[in-house]
Amino acid sequence: MTGSATSTLHLGDRFARDLPELALPWQAEDATDPNLLVLNEALATELGLDPDWLRSPDGVRLLVGAALPEGAAPVAQAYAGHQFGNYSPRLGDGRALLLGEFVDPAGHLHDLHLKGSGRTPFARGGDGLAAVGPMLREYVISEAMHALGIPTTRALAVTATGEHVFRETVLPGAVLARVASSHLRVGTFSYARATGDLELLRRLADHAIVRHHPEAASAERPHLALLEAVVSAQAELVARWMLVGFVHGVMNTDNVTISGETIDYGPCAFMEVYDPATVFSSIDAGGRYAYGNQPGIAQWNLVRLAEALLPLLGADQPQAVAVAQEALSGFVGHYNRAWTAGVRAKLGLADEVPVEVVTAVADDLLTLLHEGHVDWTSFFRALGTAARGDVEPARSSVLDLTGIDGWTRRWRALGPDADAMDRVNPVYVPRNHLVEQALSAASDAVDLGPLRQLLVAVRDPYTARPGLERFAEPAPTEFGAYRTFCGT
Predict the structure, then answer these.
(1) Domain check: are 280 and 142 in the same one?
(2) Among 23, 257, 319, 382, which residue has the least CB neighbours within 10 Å?
(3) Residue range 88-115: average pLDDT?
(4) What are the Cα distances from residue 411, in Å, to 338, 358, 385?
């Protein structure tokens, strides 16, 4: 990509054309002194964008929404949301903009979207801005998730604006440019349904089918097939979260995508000590979005999607409800299959080992890990060493030595494949203390060195490398209990 943005990048407006009722034309606020902090060069190249051009003054201005290709029509998207279970009928992009859609060299359509680009009419009193720290958090966590093979939105760049953001303290401002297959959410459907405009709801559902689940178009009942596809995608997504110990932190319905991608990395973190009650979010006092609650919350959110789709699912409400309930009942099966396949892989067990044996072995192990306050990531990686004959690294982390010895003998008798385990059990995840160190250095001293080092580790999570040992270690005791904040 060379030359000016107007001649090299076409940003379409399919969402705004198909669904103008959900798209509010808007412009990003001017950034005083934009300075590109990090650019995802590999992603840019994959998308057909020239990293060198994106680093140029024109490219940086694109990344903050100040210089757009000719014909681009940025919009703030409208959606509703159930926030901690409470319905908010009008949320929308309060500090975000959809710059438009573009097609990559492989023919895939993507959204180019900004966060922190200024206040929109959906801002509800907020300033519409974002700070460097939270935007870099989304960058590093989404890169880690991608490297772990988990569907996710991707961060393209974080650009400092040269302005200040006022939160508990004064912080440097930034804009995140991210890419997604779309930003359609469960809350988008709730908003459309609440308008009472069933033709809008139908057009939204048809738009989602074309964009994400085209196989539903040929089904006997396309809108039911859409619901079933989203149920399956979300069940598999959350199972993958659980397998790596990821805690999203704010599973509101406006943060649940129709595509099945992870979105909005606010108060998120990776669990260290295995405990289903793990909560990191400073505002989740009741533990609604705790690690162990995530599958149930995903089901709850999908019920809200089904409620929004009811007029499209049956000739009358009782029939529509029955159809929706049947579709929703598939969640448990999809989740259990994804979880069992994932834990089978983590334990290195062959397909020939019966499912009930895998489940029993996994359940007994989880009890030992919970009771022993064992680090999730380190233990499973050490289990690969145990499969090769050296059980001590895994054994020494568990309090109940008799229990783990008996479990290990039983598990090794099943013939675990150590090499296969190393391909699915990461050495490196974004350890919470290292994330905080990197964000603090970038925010306070504009020192991006710790962030770059962390990215080197998490972008290749399955390969142990000399010199990166500290990136595989749990937080030191003095780090204490970890709390994250939503960043708004």
Answers:
(1) no
(2) 319
(3) 96
(4) 21, 9, 13
Residue 146 located in a structural domain: yes
Query: Cα separation of 37 and 28, whole Å?
Result: 19
> For 153-156, which contacts have Cβ atoms below 8 Å and span 24 or more sequence positions?
153/178, 153/179, 153/180, 153/261, 153/262, 153/263, 154/40, 154/43, 154/178, 154/179, 154/180, 155/40, 155/43, 155/179, 156/39, 156/40, 156/43, 156/44, 156/47, 156/63, 156/112
Residues 230 and 247 grouped into a single domain: yes
118: tokens are 């200024």
What pTM was estimated for this model as a whole? 0.96
Q: In what order do the strands lie in the sheet with 23-25?
A: 23-25, 75-77, 96-103, 109-115, 170-180, 154-166, 35-39
- Same domain for 234 and 210: yes
325 and 212 within one domain: yes
Task: Write down the mean pLDDT value for the chain.
Answer: 95
When divided into structural domains, the chain yields a total of 2
How confident is the model at residue 487, as a pLDDT?
56
244: amino acid identity, one letter: V
The catalytically annotated residue of 111, 254, 264, 375 is 254
In DSSP notation, 220-249 reads: SSHHHHHHHHHHHHHHHHHHHHHHHTEE-S
Q: With beta carbons less than 8 A apart as the criterion, state whether 269 and 249 touch.
A: yes
Active site residue 254: yes
Range of the domain at 174: 5-180
- pLDDT score of 269 more than 90: yes
Local structure of 257: helix, strand or coil: strand
Cα separation of 406 and 425, whole Å? 22
State mean pLDDT over 15-29: 97
Beta bridge partners of 257: 185
DSSP helix, strand, coil percent of the chain (3-state; round to 5): 50, 15, 35
Helix (H, G, I), strand (E, B) or coil at 36: strand
Of 311, 339, 367, the one marking the end of a domain is 339
* Angle (nearest 5°) at CA 453 between 132 and 250: 45
Find tokens 């509101």 and name the residue: 252
Where is the domain boundary, 150, 180, 210? 180
